[in-house]
Amino acid sequence: MVTTVAARRTRPQRADAKRAEILAGARAEFLSRGYEGASMDAVAATAGVSKMTVYRHFGSKEQLFSGVIRQLCDEIIDEDISEQMDSQPVADAMRMFARRMLSTVYDPVTLQLHRVVVAESSRFPELGNLFYEQGPLRSITLLAAFIKRHPKEFGAHARNAERAAAEFMSLLRGYTHLKALLGLNPSPSEFSEAVESAVDFLLRRNS
Amino acid sequence: MVTTVAARRTRPQRADAKRAEILAGARAEFLSRGYEGASMDAVAATAGVSKMTVYRHFGSKEQLFSGVIRQLCDEIIDEDISEQMDSQPVADAMRMFARRMLSTVYDPVTLQLHRVVVAESSRFPELGNLFYEQGPLRSITLLAAFIKRHPKEFGAHARNAERAAAEFMSLLRGYTHLKALLGLNPSPSEFSEAVESAVDFLLRRNS
DNA sequence: GTCTATATGAAGATAGAC
DNA sequence: GTCTATCTTCATATAGAC
Question: CATH assignment of A77-203?
Fold first, then answer.
């Protein structure tokens, strides 16, 4: 009886561990080679399991890919910084928000995720949706809520907060983001310039 | 002698015709399936030639891909509309420029090209460069020149015309472009709102 | 549940006839 | 120059032992 109980606990745990290793291996493979370029052999090798084990856990390459992307979309979400933003001057809060955004968006993993999801949006339309909702849309919504909490500072922008938030983020991304996605190396000054442009836009300080 | 002369003209023309057909077939294949997903068998079948002919003309899949992307980058360039812009009020010229940009950027072929080039920017870095230079950079440069020709209307923006032009285009793209790349269908009102936001930004009409 | 070994097909690239 | 036929490799997915 004792051994049975132990087995009941241990076996699923080991299975979960394998599952996590497979996901980790698949993540590396899909991010670096894309959906078509990735091979299930390489996934199994990287995860240190046999290919059969991969198929037992995920059924097919498509389902494994979907699992990897969903996990990444969940992980990449920024922590909610609304409280920290509310405890400082509005302009400082905006700059803080902007810098957090940039460090997330230009993280190499985020860039690769972006490339892969855009590339496979025809084959996996629901992943395109998921990526947009968990990424940009969350940030826009969070920023819009902040704007609404400070109607005086944001003036007319507060009356259309979602639109203002999206425009702020668009100025923040600029074409620097596209350059990074295309493999060009943006110069560091582009980031600080983008922050100032976006903040000035929302606070109407047209220098 | 007559036949020789005729042959001298005809053979290269036929070879060029085949070459064009191969490029057309390859374009369809690469745009719809991506680099890895595309097959040389399918390219040959779509072009109506044998696979050997494809290899005679282009040597390898990589070279064929490069040829296709280069051709697309050349074709997608907008005609120069500077003269038309100069012959009307500045605000109207900006709206015209904006609408042209949008119709180019949201063209299905452009969207697919964008997806593929971003996806393959690691394997083909020079194509990432080319795409940026022939696409966004050309538009930014053209718009910056227009701004410089009208320093009075653009005020402070004219003193940093390249930056102002890039910011204009960033507001114009907004997140609508990303949504389109992710397979989400933007609502029509997003386009006209983006045009007004971008124009208002540059002309400092903060409504 | 996980392994080794394999079925089955398709890919990129080439040989050799004409 | 273009074709048919083929080489070689590697892919996804599975069968069967333990």
Answer: 1.10.357
